[in-house]
Write a structure and sequence with these properties.
230 residues, alpha+beta, Glutaredoxin, 4-stranded mixed β-sheet
Length: 230
């Protein structure tokens, strides 16, 4: 059994869950509240951040990027032509570039602000930073996402998938970020039909089903979150 330490609205954790779903793997999920700084979790990863994956043999793999590379190295060939990281170097560069875009740029400009202000602070004790959201940060994220939606639409309009002709880590990285924002109702789907159609294709994949079932205590997703025909 593979164990994944995650948070339901951590986009990097969601990326790994999508990745495992594409490999047909159902992990044991352990929800981790990173702000609690649990000793047992910090032993696994001193950085204290989700996701952290523990392989069957006890190998600990922290972080979305290392986990994706680990699975490509250990199981990628088994996917054949559906491999999520292309074989040729130029295509790999493009996939990795876009993964970095969504894991870093999109996250820091959009998802991190929305999830932190609207979700994490809701459950965190005040002495650890909990409390009311800073609406200036929320508004900034809602403005920033429009640029990212245009970029996703641009990529999806010229390619079958975001990085090329095959579904790749790049699509999963982008969809993971968007799924968190969609849960909170902050994706302006009406502004880019091409981006919306691309996301609908990813959202309809079997690997996405567990994400669509996510719920948090006292916090429900928007009505279109689990709707495949949104």
């Amino acid at each position: 059994m593979i164990t994944l330490y995650h948070h339901p609205l951590c986009p990097h954790s969601r990326f790994v869950r999508l990745l495992l779903g594409e490999y047909g793997i159902t992990p044991e999920l352990i929800e981790e509240k990173t702000y609690e700084r649990r000793r047992e979790f910090l032993i696994l990863d001193p950085a204290g951040q989700t996701p952290v994956l523990v392989e069957q043999g006890g190998i600990v793999v922290p972080g979305a990027g290392p986990i994706a590379e680990y699975f490509d190295e250990t199981r990628g060939l088994a996917l054949g032509r559906h491999r999520l990281l292309p074989e040729d170097p130029a295509s790999r560069v493009e996939v990795r570039r876009l993964c970095d875009w969504f894991h870093q740029k999109f996250f820091h400009e959009v998802t991190n602000w929305l999830v932190t202000e609207k979700v994490y602070k809701r459950y965190m004790p005040r002495e650890r930073g909990g409390g009311a959201p800073e609406m200036e940060l929320v508004r900034a994220a809602r403005t920033n996402i429009r640029t990212h939606m245009r970029y996703i639409g641009y990529l999806a309009g010229g390619r079958k998938w975001l990085a090329g002709e095959q579904l790749s880590h790049a699509d999963l990285a982008a969809a993971a970020q968007l799924s968190c924002v969609d849960f909170l109702g902050d994706v302006p789907w009406e502004e880019n039909e091409t981006a919306k159609l691309w996301y609908a294709r990813v959202k309809s994949r079997p690997a996405f089903r567990s994400l669509l079932a996510d719920r948090l205590p006292g916090l429900s997703p928007t009505a279109v979150y689990a709707d495949l025909d949104f």
